[in-house]
Amino acid sequence: MTAAGAAVVLTAAALLSTAAAGAGGSAPGAVTSGNGGAYEWGLSEAGHVIIPAAVAGLPGGVKQVAGTRCGMDAALMTDGTVQTWGTGALGDGADHTAFRGPAPVPGLAGITQIAVECDSVLAVGPGGSVWAWGDDSFGQLGDGGTARRLSPFQVPGLSAVTQVALGAQAGAAVRSDGTLTTWGTGMLGDGNTSSRRLPGPVPNLTGVTQVAIGAGHGMAVRSDKTLWTWGLNRAGQLGLGDEIDRLVPTKVPGLANVTSISAGCLYSLAVAGPNSSAWSWGANFAQDIFGDFPMGQLGDGTEVHHRNTPFQLPLTGIVQVSAGTDGIWASSAAIDQAGQLWTWGSNGFGQLGIGSNDPNRLAPVKVTAIPPVQQISIDVRAVAVMSNVSVLNPGPKTAAAGAPIAPFTLTALPTASYTWSATGLPPGLTLNATTGTISGTPTTPGTYGVAVTATSANGSGRTTFTFTVTSGCANPGQQLRNPGFESGAVVWSATAGVIAQSGPAQPPHAGTWTAWLDGDGTAHTDTISQSVTIPAGCVKNSLTFWLHIDTAETGTGAVDTLTVKLGTTTIGAFSNLNHTTGYVQRTISLGGAFAGQTLPLSFTGTENAGRQTSFVLDDITLTTG
């Protein structure tokens, strides 16, 4: 088989025999708050489906889906029930050899999250209990045995669980106290290679918020959003820069702000970094009895055999990733903030959803034949939760800092009552959660990526757009004239003798002139001032000056003072207590508070009767922007 893949049609029964040749494992898809319908594509009971289509017989109100490389799929509904379809242990007490359509799993209620791998299922229930059924050949169901279970049972010893994950041979659970529990066969992160068919703790790993289990390796995110991995590492799937197995969790260097993870067959995916980029590492190949051949599941655009450190993909604003668990047909997927789905890797069964089943894709491709996606699970077959809500994109926006924008209202379809939320809005702008109207006065220039979500009883939808805030300042830069007094008292109003050429007693900061206020040792007031205009739209304004305070005062009180005002507003205050050996540069941030005004800038030195304090000013700058 070539890297491009061959056009192959298999029935579900035939796939079960081929998939068994490759190791596999999966992390649960990200739990979403949506309640749309589910679409499915790729390998099906009728062959392969290359165009995504709604899952026949599955009602709306889907919260999370989990697909497998075998014959069963599952959906968590918003009412806390679980529906399954396909073949195998569907949780209804029977072992199905023929395809069965979607139906509720009897006896399950109050479920908050599910994890499915091949023919095994874990589910988080009321009170953080865990329920399981299906294949238990490796102890992955956590009941202490290996017997196949056809109906849900409560896993002993687990409570206060917030998330579960299921791999080819092992399971894991995150508890509300941030501890991690594992069970099954292989390297379970507890420091040895012994199997453990009952749940047991992973020592020395605290603050865990997410877990994913793959084909012999595990991944965990801690509350500080760092990533830790353990287990088999022959393809560098641990991301640690080598191919050495790890018996205990080890921090992955170079990744920060990790928000989503998925563990596949010999490779890993994550969302990390300030821009929520997708990252991949591990195997970029598939394996069968003839050896390894390139498949492209890393999405790096190459046929490199494997990578042992995380590689950043050209995808940003990602909210979820999904890594395939089949050892032969490895596929990957990512969803961005707008609900756009991206896929790459194997496409032998049309599982990339791009309208064909050949060739494979070495880099992410956009899937355009479906509505916005809220959550996905991909393998030889992909199943995804779709949004029943569409938010119309308002297009790119531009406004000037410091100037109110013309309010605009977002639109979502179908017409309903929505709750609106947004991330990435420029500072100074707000989104009305009830009306969807964005208004306000932007304060900080820059280009912002805005993501908006509308949520209703019909589900939720998202869109993204850019909002560029320009400086809006009609006349940026220095607004003062004669700032260093080198032209004498020109344009400054000053007490007689204050602005003068200085001698060695109070040398200037630069040039030969200064403004020397006070220094008489008597009750005295000196002032300098200049009228200054701060142009409208200027919001990044500041006053900077060099100040030398020399005093003969020895007490602890502020008896001699220098007051800085813009108009009638005091923007700075100094005293004999701030005395220095030489000049110190002082900067006062003005923001946009005085934009569009012409005001006097004044420095007033007030000295009491007693010992002298000199306030010497030079090189004054009022900069607007």
Q: How would you describe what is shown here?
A:
The protein has 625 residues and is an all-beta fold. The protein has 3 domains: 364 residues, Methylamine Dehydrogenase, Chain H, CATH 2.130.10; 80 residues, Immunoglobulins (Immunoglobulin-like, Sandwich), CATH 2.60.40; 148 residues, Galactose-binding domain-like (Jelly Rolls, Sandwich). 1% of the residues lie in helices and 49% in strands. Strands 41, 43, 44, 46, 49 and 51 form a 6-stranded antiparallel sheet that branches. Strands 1-12-13-14-15 form a 5-stranded antiparallel sheet, with no helix packed on it. A 5-stranded antiparallel sheet has the order 42-45-50-47-48, with no helix packed on it. A hairpin with a 5-residue loop joins strand 4 and strand 5. The longest helix is centred in the N-terminal third of the chain and has 8 residues. The radius of gyration is 33 Å and the shape is elongated. It starts with 11 loop residues before the first helix and ends with a strand. The N terminus is likely disordered.
